Amino acid sequence: xxxxxxxxxxxxxxxxxxxxxxxxxxxxxxxxxxxxxxxxxxxxxxxxxxxxxxxxxxxxxxxxxxxxxxxxxxxxxxxxxxxxxxxxxxxxxxxxxxxxxxxxxxxxxxxxxxxxxxxxxxxxxxxxxxxxxxxxxxxxxxxxxxxxxxxxxxxxxxxxxxxxxxxxxxxxxxxxxxxxxxxxxxxxxxxxxxxxxxxxxxxxxxxxxxxxxxxxxxxxxxxxxxxxxxxxxxxxxxxxxxxxxxxxxxxxxxxxxxxxxxxxxxxxxxxxxxxxxxxxxxxxxxxxxxxxxxxxxxxxxxxxxxxxxxxxxxxxxxxxxxxxxxxxxxxxxxxxxxxxxxxxxxxxxxxxxxxxxxxxxxxxxxxxxxxxxxxxxxxxxxxxxxxxxxxxxxxxxxxxxxxxxxxxxxxxxxxxxxxxxxxxxxxxxxxxxxxxxxxxxxxxxxxxxxxxxxxxxxxxxxxxxxxxxxxxxxxxxxxxxxxxxxxxxxxxxxxxxxxxxxxxxxxxxxxxxxxxxxxxxxx
Length: 523
What we know:
Elements: H1 19-31, E1 55-60, H2 69-72, H3 78-81, E2 86-87, E3 89-91, E4 97-99, E5 102-107, E6 113-118, H4 132-144, E7 157-163, E8 166-171, H5 178-181, E9 188-189, H6 192-195, H7 198-201, E10 211-217, E11 221-226, E12 240-245, H8 249-258, E13 263-265, H9 271-276, E14 280-284, E15 289-294, H10 304-313, H11 316-323, E16 329-330, H12 354-363, E17 371-377, H13 382-393, E18 396-402, H14 407-411, E19 417-422, H15 428-436, H16 453-461, H17 470-481, E20 487-489, E21 491-492, E22 495-499
Parallel strand pairs: 1-12, 1-13, 17-18
Antiparallel strand pairs: 2-9, 3-4, 5-6, 6-8, 7-8, 10-11, 11-12, 13-22, 14-22, 15-19, 15-20, 16-21
């Protein structure tokens, strides 16, 4: 899928690398407060795997369904795929792009060509060289493979020339977002030789990341060992990884206490219990946002009054109060407040007003109870029940339909009404395009886009990230996107993680999990 549906369980370019970090650092500091609670160790079970050494035992509610990064897309599971795969760039604690497989990069004077210079002597875990040809193959596969979830993110790339360790990306437009975009989320690079058989790669990943996968039990478990050929292996201090699919959220804390796991993503409802159990619980900054997705190409949402009625029927505070346990906040945008792309001028454009909602429905010709909607989702989700209740208050009857194959009709734009929660992108422009662009994977109303959005986002791409007016231009694009009738945003929340105290603090890279420098004691 192009992005991860988060179901809350009942779930060194001189122009683009400098000023952006300063802006993001300030914005992220405002948007999030990192909560680190070091208390008494839960101890227990920090034993190493049979191969010896320190072992990370990570249980996750988003265990990869696909290990081919082209298919896995940029959803939450990219954090786990990043164990095995590296990318051209990665994100630092300020949110800016820094070198990874590429040691540096530069744009041409016009801004429509960027050259990435790869590190020398690197190889994939199958022995194949990490070179510009591998980058070219990765981009082309992401653009052309039938089941790729990434093609919509790479529309600015027209072609790639490979010259030894130099990958030259020719762009279809001036786009200074490319280093931000081509990090762990969008272009994790697989061995071209292994990728000749995408079905095999999908369950047997071959990358150049910090770890090498030794075994995958689909949907259940993966075992990995440290990759001695990783470019920064000297700063990877974990020897083995046991990655498992999380059981019911209510049992994760006990598993951490007893040492079955020592690291886990955490539901907000379990945070208090984890703290009381003596675990480290911390907030990892992110770009998460939840929304109601409307298809304006289908009745009744082809009527603007019905769309506005739904907008005014949504009480965002209820989502925060019932689902986030103090960790979330309301948002009517695809970004959290304080992030540089958040547009203060657009805040609360459609306030909660059920009386106005009922009036708009009457003007559209609907009496109370006349309008009936199917809300189609992939699994049980308390968000759906809140939507059902709030729309019932204004006279709209909602029936919740669970479709385990939901992704197929959603991304084919066949649904009328659904829910979506995303992890965002490191490139704010790409987040906007994914939601509001005519080919956006999160735009249920494709090919619809709001008037003025195309020009606004083009201006963002033409503006270097360290330009003085970058934030103003970016917020204007957010404002143009929010004219869309296809999405109604509700709330955002950061990522919660719980770990044993034996694991040292992690870098607080927004939305990413970075194992650089992390140690596990007592192994």
